[in-house]
Amino acid sequence: MQPEAAAPVAPAKPRKPDWLRVKLPVGPAYANVRRLVDEHKLHTICESGNCPNMGECWGAGTATFMILGNVCTRSCSFCAVATGRPTEYDTDEPRRVAEAIQLMGVKHAVITSVNRDELKDRGASIWYETVVRVKELSPSTTIETLIPDVKANWAALDTMIAGGQEVVSHNMETVGSLYRLVRPQAKYDRSLEQIRRTKEAGKRTKSGIMLGLGETKEEMYRAMDDLVANGLDILTLGQYLQPTKRHLEVAEFIHPDLFAHYREEGLARGLKYVESGPLVRSSYHAERHVNVPI
User: What are the residue boundaries of the Radical SAM core domain, all occurrences included (predicted)?
Assistant: First the structure.
């Protein structure tokens, strides 16, 4: 009688290393930002995206505001923001965001949004008015807008980036070979074109990529070359962290030394500024990116 074959053993999941541990958000400055966000009924990607730097950034009196609601029409497999059919479209939101930024005394504001594919203009009019209102109430405040994929609606893109912001960011999120897995409703080449068109409009361009999803070094080098060829100025590189069990698992925790290597590679390949580290997110140290020459 043949002995039964042993059941295959599933590979162990990588354990979160010490360099990814962060402090819980505390302190009066953090509490004040939370109070203002709640009072003005604002959404922040800090909360919706479970950002590991929320304590540090909010403790410094800054936040990344998310306009156009907190329900996204996309179902990206890495993102903690709720997916569904949005019902919120608040034409008073630009005023509330601008007033909150003024009350906080924010020197550099980051504004982002969910995808609103169901809207004909992708929400571009709200984008434009939000930037204009912030500039009216806080003329010394610099602004970065982290805009979604407009699905080749280039008229919407033109409106989104015309409000006077200093930095326009659009995240690639991953390398080309992983797009179907990570961003199933997006296209690698289309996102590159969006960055190229933004640069051609005279804007300071920025993008971000998550590491640890299964990309290779060669794919990362190719992505950086593609971004340089399409006019990117600033690149952020950070570790992907699985937000819930329903989302993609981490394939690998990238060592800080490799992040440092990618920073040097990016600069050598023509990028003007690279923010690279395990806890780096799109808006981390964003105030430094305003001074990058166009």
Answer: 58-272
